[in-house]
Structure prediction request, 56 residues.
Amino acid sequence: MTRMADRLLELIAPHTAARATDCDYQCCNSSTWKYCCYYPNGSHHCGGCVATKSCR
Prediction:
């Protein structure tokens, strides 16, 4: 699942941005999460919050 999300992010992320070094899911609240990638230049990109059964 993570690899698929990485590939999807690569398609929508600008090609001029450096490759992400750290991508992971983050909780928005107790029932939603989002997928974020952090880049070496200090910037980051996150998807929208989506529903999940639980987020810790």
User: Anything to note?
Assistant: The longest strand covers residues 22-29. The mean pLDDT is 78. The helical segments are 2-12. Residues 15 and 33 are 25 Å apart (CA to CA).
